[in-house]
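Technical note accompanying the year-one report. For the benefit of new consortium partners, we illustrate the data format agreed upon in the data management plan: each record pairs a sequence with a structure-token string. No post-processing was applied to the example shown here.
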Amino acid sequence: MTDISAAPGRWRVLHYSHHSTGLGHLVRSLAIAGAVAERSDVLFCSGGRVPAGLAIPPGVELVTLPPVGTDEHGELCSLDPEYSLNQAWDGRRQQLLEHFDRFDPDAVVVELFPFGRRKFAAEFIALLERARQGRRRVVVSSVRDLLVDAHPDKQQHDDGAAERLDTYFDAVIVHGDPRFARLEETFRPSRSPTVPVFYSGFVAPPSPVAPLDRRAAQILVSAGGGLIGGRLLAVAVEAHRSILGPMGATTRVVSGPFLPPDYYAGLVERSRSVEGLTIERFVPDLASAMAESAVSVSQCGYNTSIDLLRSGVPAVVVPYDEDRETEQWARACRLESLGAVRLLPAARLSPETLAASVLDAVASTTRAVRLDLGGAATTAALLASLMPASMTAVA
């Protein structure tokens, strides 16, 4: 960890992000932190596991709290064997507040809360209460394009989130293009909050994907962080073994760093004697890997979707839709209506249907979709604009 000191004429921004299941929230938040760091000093507090090989932007000090995530049953657990879950909760809250006091930020950015992260509310509220003490600070909620829209107590949840927005926050920044989705489509409180809502555009990695010659027969299969992608990966391996491989295709499977080790070992074992099939844990630049492939097979998380749009690769998406998770399904439906992907529902997923969808994608023309992908830089500019004139940057 590199401890940065505030440079003359720069703001200090604390960005708190947590990811429990996949990598999407972490990757998006780090891209935003990197853009903010061009004009501010950034302390980035991560509440989930940070995989090896993930680049930390220059000028960003990374603090990792005792990680809490979900197990194979979807239950919260401590991801560090040295901590029980209760010990992890206590340690996280204490460390978060200690780092806040040390850094003394001018602005606080929290990711997804209060729209989500209900199980983490205690530590978010502790941070927000600390931010209200002493001098004036700007507090912003950073949220993706679409929210989960199938909670059984959705109305009560949205009403509570609206109340917390007005109590603790100065603004909401939605990291999406309003032409694609608007916040009010998945956030419908009985009373609209008074805090302003801004749209930044989608947050894409800082460097564009260079045009590459596609490998005519390569199929790229990915599953984000991997924790909830095991079934898709296993079906893709079988589709290659029984159908696509004998047709001359090659399949590159990227499992994701959070796929359970035993499951990953099983995929590797099943690939040993299969020609044209490779299994990898992690690819730092998935968009470039997509750009050099004939077709991409994936779920439909936020970052994967942006990579699909940037690369222009023909794509088959199998959105995760279990446990009332509607976000990926809604995004996939919108992208399919724009002609950017081919949607294969998880309920219909099999080696045969996946192979058929891949062949259809290769034979079809993918329609270019023009959406605002400049969200990182726009977020940095929005955050600077929210700083009141009376709040002078550190000199």
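Partners are asked to follow this layout when depositing records. The radius of gyration is 21 Å.
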